[in-house]
Amino acid sequence: NAGVTQTPKFQVLKTGQSMTLQCAQDMNHEYMSWYRQDPGMGLRLIHYSVGAGITDQGEVPNGYNVSRSTTEDFPLRLLSAAPSQTSVYFCASSYSTVNSPLHFGNGTRLTVT
Amino acid sequence: EDKVVQSPLSLVVHEGDTVTLNCSYEVTNFRSLLWYKQEKKAPTFLFMLTSSGIEKKSGRLSSILDKKELFSILNITATQTGDSAVYLCAVLYGGSQGNLIFGKGTKLSVKP
Questions:
Q1: Taking the alpha carbons of A63, A55, B46, B56 in that order, is the dihedral positive or negative?
Q2: How far apart (Å, rounded) are the C-alpha atoms in residues A22 and A7?
Q3: Which of A14, A15, A77, A86 makes the best surface tag, with the fewest CB within 10 Å?
Q4: Residues of chain A with C-beta less than 8 angstroms from the C-beta of B31
Q5: Would you say A85 and A110 are in contact if contact means Cβ atoms under 8 Å apart?
Q6: Do B92 and A98 touch (CB under 8 A)?
Q7: Are B6 and B102 in contact (CB under 8 A)?
Q8: Cα separation of A109 and B6, whole Å?
């Protein structure tokens, strides 16, 4: 019963460094998404994917890239980290956004210094 | 602009109290409203509401949707310290797969 697995749990980066946050789900969900959660801002959608090979931008996509080469994996890449990207990142998936709720991973706490 | 507004932003009660959390929304082509509970880590799903006036219930928690007045409430009766969490409201709207927009959450603290 792994569900949605995110790695790493914590990460500290220096400004300008790049890294990839990993997300994998074992529920055969078509829909996957990345959110960031900041104090007083709620959850904001970064990128999402409705199936392998298909991705699209959410509310706050700048500075992030995604790809979806398989149904299971949806990595989030930070190209050149900035302090404004300090946040908690959640990956979430669902069979279909229309009829089923999102299942969230446990989050990655990222600090950019 | 599409938005979801939750109130209050924070709430402190004592064990045994009943609380009501509010969620109002303004979106185009509403599809459903969801409630989540977030403790220390991942939000966990509570309810999905699509029809007005039909109460969904799970133990001491219940929720109802009013599509005419564009709001939902989440009730928790006989609160316990384990109910302490941030409660998130989200609205699915738009076409195709839809877009999901979250409110900022209500932080509930239940004191013994």
A1: positive
A2: 5
A3: A14
A4: 98
A5: yes
A6: yes
A7: no
A8: 25
Tokens 């950019």 correspond to what residue? A112
Closest residue of chain A to B39, computed from CA coordinates? A106
- What pLDDT, on the 0 to 100 scale, is given for residue A39? 87
* Nearest of A102, A108, A82, A86 to residue A21 by alpha carbon: A108
What DSSP letter does each residue of A35-50 carry, written as one string? EEEETTTEEEEEEEEE
Chain A residues touching chain B at CB-CB below 8 Å: 4, 31, 33, 35, 40-45, 50, 90, 96-98, 101-107
Averaged pLDDT for residues A34-48: 92
Token readout for B41 is 């880590």
User: CA–CA separation, B76 vs B57, rounded Å?
Assistant: 10
Please state the rounded mean pLDDT for residues A12-23: 97
Confidence band for B17, pLDDT divided at 50, 70 and 90: very high
B interface residues, A as partner, C-beta within 8 Å: 31-32, 34, 36, 41-45, 48, 88, 90, 92, 97-105
Q: How confident is the model at residue A2 (pLDDT cuts 50, 70, 90)?
A: confident
Q: Mean of the pLDDT values across residues B31-38?
A: 95
Tokens read off for B110: 């239940």
